[in-house]
DNA sequence: CTGAAAGCGCTTACAG
DNA sequence: CTGAAAGCGCTTACAG
């Protein structure tokens, strides 16, 4: 395996010139550059990563701490991991994957040994020991999600309150005067991430602002309970003509079946918006308008912020990514009669 | 951040003694070791990864190439990634994650730059460009799964033929004389991985060996088609009393509903075994006997084989992991009447 | 049982 | 525009 000395010899220059030619950190004479390029090609030279890390100030590796617990929703989790890796590669960074069992020890190890230049934290929970650790490590880091105590941290997340508000606005703007939110099972609001709470609060707050009636129900995952919840809310609030669903994929389909089962058609009788899913709602029956949670949006920004910190500390912050609305035809004006 | 010279100075020894004390590669005097341990603790010393990589012969990093495509079954994929990372950590190896878009270029980059000591390949397809690449790279590598051309490669996979044969044996041993396999959609058998084919062939071959009637149907994913397939096979082969299912999670539940819908009870009327799922079948209604695909089994072995290759090339091979049977009560003797 | 020293392959001031 | 050289932080023969 050729090294920089081989390239320098073949090109008839010094190793520093080879180094500068490859890094572009100083101007190189036209013909010198050509001879070096030629030598690099001839020897199939690729700089040694360890030499680079040791001499330089960067390892060009980020640690990604992603639990990969089996109780996380795998498709979304996978999409986020993929988005982080893709975003990191755009900055020429590789990603070292640290999982649940080694969350804290692993982060400590790879940052103390200077194996990584920074840390990206995924699947952040309210009480996340990784948040405290990152704070104490003082290493470049960005969290995707917001822990209970975000002081001193750089966090990026979808603006869930704005997303819920956007859903309300769409319904109200279409003429609906009574809206309902079908949410996750109650356990989700009690522990784990705080975004369901933020979505719910954003929903209720905006509905109040807009002066429309609003109700909120938590829905368990079993089909009978889902049907029950749909009936309950439509029976208890007959005026409801706009529905926002913040739940898992399977729950959506069951809700849609239940709605159809009551003889209601979407959007003629009921307008429906899916809130912040990571899955596709355009192939549902009927396709649903959606305010998606887009992994790339948060991940790209988180990686950018981590990269910025390589130059030095930046202001701690919670950066909220603006929600986007995608129309699939499931929202319309309510029937004149109500 | 303390380095090895700091530790040596505080402990009053040379840096080589510190290095040997930490690596355990040569015996160190009792009190010398104590002084070094003390200094390490006092300075919170952790060896610099880049220095280690450059001076040593190992980076202690494996590349894991896992596509993370959105069309792969995420829960299983995540379980495999997790199992690889966990297995690698047991050998004190970290894992660098390379995804789809960079499969070939990324592997070339990290191996040419000596960033990694070896490669673990996940989600291997029949025509997998990564297989050819790994062959040409000549770097320690282990594939989890078997490509069309496995020549020169080290592969590990579940023994799918043996798994299917085990299912047949269980049914035949219980007294069943006519068995059926409900498999994946036809597209799965035509492209992608080859394990569905291996499972099917193992099923048919063992049934022939045991002298029992066997049929095989491919089942699409939509509920109506699933119900249709169940009816078709039970109508066409009324003697069938033993069923093996090799399909996705949702398909299983729909099949069970369809079976119940026909008034058949499991296992009294029909014995059912789930073939090589990565999901839990013990919470199905009823719980199903299962021959699971256990990510850890293949992943641990693949990592072991990669580690072995650090000492030098080993014999190329396709190592098949023996299947295991888990009884949940869904297999019984057929009714005396047939 | 321990140490002095070479060397791994780069980057980057320093010098011209 | 280019080069000689120091140095990053380790490991490991070599020597005693």
From TrEMBL, chains A, B:
UniProt cross-references to SMART domains, sorted A to Z: HTH_LACI
Which terms does the record give in the GO molecular function aspect? Answer: DNA-binding transcription factor activity; transcription cis-regulatory region binding
- Which InterPro entries does the entry mention? HTH_LacI (IPR000843), LacI/GalR-like_sensor (IPR046335), Lambda_DNA-bd_dom_sf (IPR010982), Peripla_BP_I (IPR028082)
Taxonomic superkingdom? Bacteria
In this entry, which stretches build a coiled coil?
A: none
Question: Where in this chain does the record put each HTH lacI-type domain?
Answer: 2-56
**Pfam annotation, one family:** Peripla_BP_3
Return the protein name: LacI family transcriptional regulator
The record lists the organism as Arthrobacter bussei
